[in-house]
């Protein structure tokens, strides 16, 4: 199935600069219309293998939502990945990409009973729950399935007053898993999630400690904690950096040692961003560079990509992407970066300081690095007449890989 | 062209409750899959006519971005509306809906020269600019066109440190319009925008005063201010209400009197939301109702619509939609409302207090009112496997109006 991707089946990662050269080489040779995303499949494979190396004992469930492109899913299925899915459509995408349904974990705790039934009919046998109504749905529509219970990952004091959208108070986990057993399901264990682009390698400590405490309580009622899903949150390389993934692996290993000792459950992780983000470059074009007042020191730089057609994660300036331009190396000055739509909130960076070359002019390219995750799949259907983000996938030779019509 | 819409050509608005009954009647009879948007075309026509009545001296440029559905554009074109467009695609949508290009105003000041050329080739002759590079593009690609200069609408003290994405400092307007004349363009006047869903009917005062001051300055250099575009910002009816549109018309009238007296320029307004929002209901379904901790007083209510598939404007809880359920009238309790995706930020209302019936259960409908603007057109291409929002358009008989394939 992945014959045409054989060249990406590598065991070591190459320097990120080499990936950038390959991506930009493709862009410079083919000059596709901007904005567009280019994803380097060898780098996706390398990202997957890197996490496999760092977490050798864990099942790796790729979080499909990060980048659901067929080419990416097909590559990862061929490399033996499992998949974290959130909807019947994502189940179907994975199956079409060659994944066996026993490799799928339905991790979304917000699901209609009909969604559970659809996933079950397609062969999915592992579901995560975090409430009684969710559990009852799974029992009714996926009889006999394995279930994980998702718990809050943070100490109570650090939560919002309302807690979080996913997970439940740890004190509910025991009752839910015992209820699961009574409903004929197979209670497998716990999951938690420390939040996306997590910059603290120690963030898993509280969840692991909580899981270990609950494991003892569950064992006392005859329910061994056989599985622990550590979720995602592993970072990609944006402008302001992140600790190396090896530090995350080491910190998690130490937490597991501390709280579980030798009696560890089977482990799972759900990386998404950390597999695909670094493999993508989003090429945009400068629309305008202007000053809006005589006394302003900064320029406004308007790109042809913004919050509605690819750079969704600049909301609240959460992700500060690294940028490359054709004029890098020359003198720079402060800018406000904004997208092309008529939406006054379609501003990328205003509080976050960016300096770009003073020579930057309309028509110049601005390349957005580490753009392989949460970009094309988050674009709108065409707000203000700006089309969704086309995507190209390239192989080790820097040329397009034949997909199945999901590319640009 | 609008023969089949003739019944919506009404001159008086009916009570909003009647519109809701018609919309919900359609939904109850046809039970389309949820989530979906239903837009009542008679109410769109009434919204347009109401603004025409309130601003009889102004050209009404419908802001296409609010709802670019073909059925809506076709109806408004038939009623004689002009259109505010922001991209070549929006130009094409309007022309396909039957608008004459001399009815189009290209109001986006962020545009590539190639976009200007495309719009000009399609017949557009009115462009708004707010910077010299933008002006130079228009002069090059739309020679001889009419131009408006967009200025900041707020007093300097109320602006962010960086100003705003659109508009320029008023002191730049004179130089830009004089430059426009030298470049062979026709400087027509000024525009400004007070911000969407503006709740202060007096918000136009500063912009009108500034425009009057600049008019005197411009006249001194031989450039009469022949047009003033007051932008949009007129509100729709969300949960927490807004002043009646008549108060806006009165406040603007008073400002114009105060600053221009009898020597008024030609006026334009650019309503979008206030034309279409109230005409739409978004029907969603409750996915789950759960409690995440024993000590929580509130329930989490998860809907099958969220920030990624229609309710984009709940970002930062900006728009607090009014909701109707089948259990209204019974006892209620506090809830947190969230969408169906695996995104932890896909939460609709957490800080904004909502109380919903305690009887609310999975499968129940929750109808989101005043959802006709900035919903379907802002949905993602399918984040997490959740499809864009299908739209149905109904006529005065409450039955679907034959569109051109842009409906659900």
Automatic annotation (TrEMBL), chains A, B:
CDD domains: PLPDE_III_ODC
Keywords on record: Decarboxylase, Lyase, Pyridoxal phosphate
Gene3D superfamilies in the record: Alanine racemase, Lyase, Ornithine Decarboxylase, Chain A, domain 1
Orn/DAP/Arg decarboxylase 2 N-terminal domain span: 48-277
Top-level lineage group: Bacteria
Catalytic activity of the protein: L-ornithine + H(+) = putrescine + CO2
EC number assigned by the record: 4.1.1.17
Family, per entry: Belongs to the Orn/Lys/Arg decarboxylase class-II family.
Name of protein: ornithine decarboxylase
